[in-house]
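Hello everyone,

My group is preparing for a crystallization screen and wants a predicted model to guide construct design. The compound we'll soak is copper (II) ion. Before spending weeks at the bench, it would help to have a computed complex in hand. I've included the protein sequence and the ligand's SMILES below. Output in structure-token form would be ideal because that's what our pipeline reads.
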Amino acid sequence: MNKKMILFLSVLALGLLSACGNANNNTHLSGHETDNKQGDAQQHASSQGGHNMSQSMVSDNVKALFTFAPTTVKANEQTELTIQINGKDGKPVNEFNLNHEKLLHLIVVNHDLSFFNHIHPEYKGSGKFTISTSFPAGGDYKLFADFIPTNGSSTTLSERIQVEGKSGDHAAIAADAKLVKETDGKEIELALSSTKPKEEVTLTFNIRDALTKKGVNNLQPYLGAVGHVVILSADAEQYIHVHPIDEKSTGPQAQFATSFPNSGIYKLWAQFQHNNKVITVPFVVDIK
Ligand SMILES: [Cu+2]
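Reply:
Good plan to model first. Here are the tokens for the complex, ready for your pipeline.
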């Protein structure tokens, strides 16, 4: 990590700490506001290139408050999560665009990225989304809410939380030696057009039957496209957006476009639907 990066992360950490200090007096789970201007700016710089300032400002002015009931979250117990989206003026953001068939996508990971959950809280109006969920073990988790305020731009706001209870096994994240995985009777192979940072990268997944090795050509649309891919940096600081290239594909090939902002280890989760079942396949890649 170079000095510039360390400085940048320190500034970011300071910003987050001060945000915590303001609104986080009672308990670490009482909810506090964070924003993620950097990730959003990055995504638009890389994926669309033409967003104007006023749109960026709208998204920068949006805040998310994550709260739980009960306020102490315990491993393996259902908890009611509320995500309140407000403008900087403190007033609720009322309208959101449908994006991949949902108003808000919530990604939950644990500290070593061994746990991944992609869920869709229900919109209750007045900027409020709720969902009942649970966490498989104690420890640190990070939540990412991904949404588009109407008249705003694609926004990702995140929050780190602690879950009480026995923590699971810790695993160091290491790049996969082979980008072929088997899950749910399928063999999924990933190829990257480039493993360099700051370049347009095409992710090509090939989905085969694990036994016959025949390509699966009847994938069902998942969230309105051939699949859905989420990418996080190993430290979960960077949430990277990914766009399907041929949304209407039904396999065996599924292609997505993205760009990695820096060198380092990234974990990605590809999700596809087949025979009415969603399969989730993780890969760890080394970008250098
Ligand atoms: Cu989603």
